[in-house]
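Q: Predict the bound structure with iron/sulfur cluster.
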Amino acid sequence: MKIEVSRDELLKELGYKSLPQEALLEVIDSMLSLSEGVLEPSAVFEGIREASGVPRFLEGARLMYVGIATIGPGLEKKVSELFESGRPTEAYILDVIGSLASTKAGNALWEEIRRDAARKGVRRGKRRTPGCQGIDLETQGWILGQLGDREIPVGITTSYMMFPRKSLSFLARFGGKQKGRFSCKGCLHYSDCSLRSSKGMT
Ligand code: SF4
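A: Predicted complex:
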């Protein structure tokens, strides 16, 4: 899996509508080049066949999947090194690149799952991640369990947070009739959610 973050995407995420001062632009460009050497994106997914005991979000679906995407541990390690060596601006910019990259890795995984579902004859689907409205964080553990011994460098803490932090797990469903409410409307994270405009989330 290849993930690239462009300068324009990064500037937008950092809140710039036009080019910043030359000195800052140089830092931004150097962090973009650095990121190319530390991003190690990977993703896995699995179709779920057994309908009993699935999270409520998946209930009633014709096709069910779980997936995890990550950018690997390298970028976070570099962010810590930059902070520790007194370079917070560089650390912050690299961290933002990591967030954009992990969202892109999640989007790429969603596209893969979507293609798999289409091959099986179902085109309309949606995804949700643990922490979304109606899906508790403990679901991270269930998702990881469904992936069995599939190789992905991701783990979860006892409080169900993923490491590396820049990783994304999700449930995906296609077809069938959904039970329960999983809309972004009314979600506690709505105002600062960077995921809700991603494909499959709407
Ligand atoms: S607003 Fe974000 S966190 Fe909340 S349900 Fe939508 S995608 Fe999930």
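A: The mean pLDDT is 94.
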